[in-house]
Design goal:
It is built from 6 helices and 4 strands. Helix 1 links the parallel strand 1 and strand 2. The protein has a 4-stranded mixed sheet, sandwiched between helices. It has one domain. With 140 residues, the protein is α+β, with helices and mostly antiparallel strands. The longest helix is centred in the C-terminal third of the chain and has 19 residues.
């Protein structure tokens, strides 16, 4: 699973940090998940190859599937402990137009509400599977 995030967005980087503290250690590896800032050269290449033209905050590439908006965020629960999988299962009951409307509302306001990250500050446990927004971290 490759997770493309807005590497300059405090909420998006915060999501990566939150996930890094909750994904079991055996799944926190490049074989299971990689976090890539969408604005990095590698991120742009991945988005182009996946056919994503309007990148906004979070996109998940999983096998041949491209997940966006609420589906991308909910897909991340697959790597989390069981209680978070249950929360995601409940959220999936909400019709996609409603979930995606909420997602888009948050995405539109995320910079105003949470600000920007000037420097990649991702937790070292997550940095192993992260390519920093300005190349500060090494690509695995």
């Amino acid at each position: 699973m490759i997770v493309l995030i807005d590497g300059d967005c405090a909420l998006c980087v915060g999501l990566v940090e939150w996930l890094g503290k909750r994904i079991p250690a055996e799944k926190l590896s490049p074989e299971h998940i990689m976090f890539v800032p969408g604005e990095s050269g590698w991120g742009q290449q991945l988005l182009h190859t996946a056919g994503v033209e309007d990148f906004d905050s979070v996109v998940v590439l999983r096998g041949n599937r491209v997940l966006q908006e609420s589906n991308a965020v909910l897909a991340l629960a697959d790597l989390l402990p069981r209680r978070w999988k249950m929360v995601a299962a409940i959220a999936r009951v909400v019709p996609p137009p409603i979930r995606n409307g909420i997602y888009r509302w948050i995405a539109r306001n995320r910079i105003t509400w949470f600000g920007r990250k000037e420097v990649c500050s991702i937790d070292p446990r997550v940095a192993v599977v992260t390519y920093g927004p300005r190349g500060l971290l090494k690509r695995p």
